[in-house]
Amino acid sequence: MNVALTSVIDADAAVAAYLEQHERKQLLRFITCGSVDDGKSTLIGRLLHDTKLLLDDQLAALEADSLRHGTQNGQIDFALLVDGLQAEREQGITIDVAYRFFSTDRRKFIVADCPGHEQYTRNMATGASTADLAIVLVDARKGLLTQTRRHSYIVSLLGIRHVVLAVNKMDLVDHDEAVFARIVDDYRALAAQLGIPQVTCIPLSALNGDNMLSASTRMPWYAGTTLLEHLETVEIDDDRRDLGLRLPVQWVCRPDQNFRGFAGTIVSGAVDVGDEIVALPSGRRSRVARIVSGDDDLETAVRGQAVTLTLEDEIDISRGDVIAAADSPPEVADQFAAHLLWMGEHALLPGRPYWLKIGARTVGASVTEIKHRVDVNTQEHLAAKHLELNEVGVCNLHLDQPVTFEAYADSRELGGFILIDRQTNATVAAGTLDFALRRAANIHWQHLEVDKAARARSMGQTPRCVWFTGLSGSGKSTVANLVDKRLMAMGLHTYTLDGDNVRHGLNKDLGFSDEDRVENIRRVAEVAKLMVDAGLIVLVSFISPFRAERRLARELFDAGEFVEVFVDTPLEVAESRDVKGLYAKARAGKIPNFTGIDSPYEVPEAPELRLDTMAASSEALAEQVVARLLGG
Ligand SMILES: Nc1ncnc2c1ncn2[C@@H]1O[C@H](COP(=O)(O)OS(=O)(=O)O)[C@@H](OP(=O)(O)O)[C@H]1O
Ligand SMILES: Nc1ncnc2c1ncn2[C@@H]1O[C@H](COP(=O)(O)OP(=O)(O)O)[C@@H](O)[C@H]1O
């Protein structure tokens, strides 16, 4: 049931019949893309208005608003309508897409309306991920713009196979056929490059209604369909191959002891009672006992149906698992090649941990390598060390747990994902899985007979990673050195990893850009982990300016093993000490990206220890650290 239909419900049998008839109509999901002034809102407004599914009171309000704002000389301004409706936008996690519903005698429609200007790409990607068709709006006066190319690229990336090129504002180019023909040629060339299989081009004036619902008398040279007629009749073929049964489990339904069902929508194939299935990633097998849909039991269910399955055996399946045909199961992997559309305000940095959400599953993930960035204008592959807002790249991904997947080309549901910032919970990327990287499957953990506990026992100590973080010149090395000496004097086994030293060897290929710092800390954290595994107390002394990487480091260790020590020295003080003369150089512009000057330092939120270097001597501070280590 949809919003517009809900609004016309009346407690009257005729309405019920009408609704039922609507329910049976085929559904077309589409999205409109275009630059801000291309007339997107006017187009949606007119479709909603002219298909008469606008409510009378909305219409009255619109007429009043149009008169008040007066942008169209007393005529209805359809853009106001859509903008007005935006008040009731649906709230996604952090995504802002409103879905509008309307229907005609032949079909019902859901149009994803993606408002917002600078965040438009993000909203559009969200709307596009479920759409069958995209209307790409172009202003007849301007032709194809960078935005047109970017949006078309996203449309193709997200697997939309049907595009309507709506050449709008034909009234402003005297309804000139030659203008239309030129834009069509340009767009067909682009679509061919992007591999969009079906493009229908329509000359329009959304404002005047030309070729919207009825054929325009002002463009007799155009013999094709009107926009609405096309939307009503376009055949949405789905020629993706049948993969066999795929049911991502949305939730486990357990109303009482006797019933345990796995609910979700079948995204591929079909299922019969008695079929053998496999649950992934566990690989456990069973047979389907019942297929429940609402109050009914079904014998069979197919793609698109939301059902609850019960199984003959008690096997462990949780939300996010996939139930699949036992004879053609999907793959399970933790390393992938993927396309990413970056939507975060801050750049994507390889090595930084994010959450990856695929279907109902969320796992930790990082980009291990950016293969290249794609110029959305030319499709050229460009070298890239990071991805900025609205950039598209091809990357290798590493997940910290295996997931069940299909290539996006075969299944949008099992191949599409988003990345989420772990600090802000904002969605920072939309992505498509291309294929699994085989190397993961061929590397296994080697079991070692002598483990960390054995080594720690023989050394008579509890291994630890003591992580000093703070500005350059804050006192990290000074305090870490003193701690090291004291622990050594007590007969404990230690090692100090210091930024300045490690950067001469292991990390000599790295500089001070954000992405190099991320990689610097990732490597050092891994080395520290090996040293802790070896039974040592490791003192790590790096600026480590970003919360995300300190957290990454923390998560490598067992509970209690990681001790974060914030060496808290204000910038003015560190700068006045200027032990190495670096601040002076940085201020003079001779060292770019200097922490605290033109590169950020993110203060720790919950360190185990905070050392105030203004309030105590370095010896006293070292004492505090030692006391903390020996005390617990
Ligand atoms: N641009 C810039 N920014 C910050 N620091 C700089 C820079 N260029 C060189 N140095 C020197 O490098 C030391 C910091 O290296 P780190 O590995 O600790 O840095 S980071 O954790 O990757 O941010 C740091 O050492 P400490 O002063 O001991 O912190 C500096 O001496
Ligand atoms: N309370 C204190 N704790 C640590 N260092 C201090 C303190 N007071 C002054 N300092 C001085 O500050 C400087 C810190 O330099 P360093 O330890 O190399 O910092 P970092 O390793 O963080 O770059 C040293 O010259 C040190 O003597």
From TrEMBL:
Binding site for GTP: 34-41, 113-117, 168-171
Family membership: In the N-terminal section; belongs to the TRAFAC class translation factor GTPase superfamily. Classic translation factor GTPase family. CysN/NodQ subfamily.
Active site: S544 (phosphoserine intermediate)
Protein name (record): Multifunctional fusion protein
Keywords: ATP-binding, GTP-binding, Kinase, Multifunctional enzyme, Nucleotide-binding, Nucleotidyltransferase, Phosphoprotein, Transferase
Domain of life: Bacteria
Gene name of the encoded protein: cysN
Positions of ATP binding: G470, L471, S472, G473, S474, G475, K476, S477
Natural source organism: Lysobacter hankyongensis
Classification via CDD domains: APSK, CysN_ATPS, CysN_NodQ_II, CysN_NoDQ_III
UniProt keyword annotation of Nucleotide-binding present: yes
Catalytic activity: sulfate + ATP + H(+) = adenosine 5'-phosphosulfate + diphosphate; adenosine 5'-phosphosulfate + ATP = 3'-phosphoadenylyl sulfate + ADP + H(+)
Domain Tr-type G: start-end pairs: 25-240
Pathway(s) served: Sulfur metabolism; hydrogen sulfide biosynthesis; sulfite from sulfate: step 1/3; Sulfur metabolism; hydrogen sulfide biosynthesis; sulfite from sulfate: step 2/3
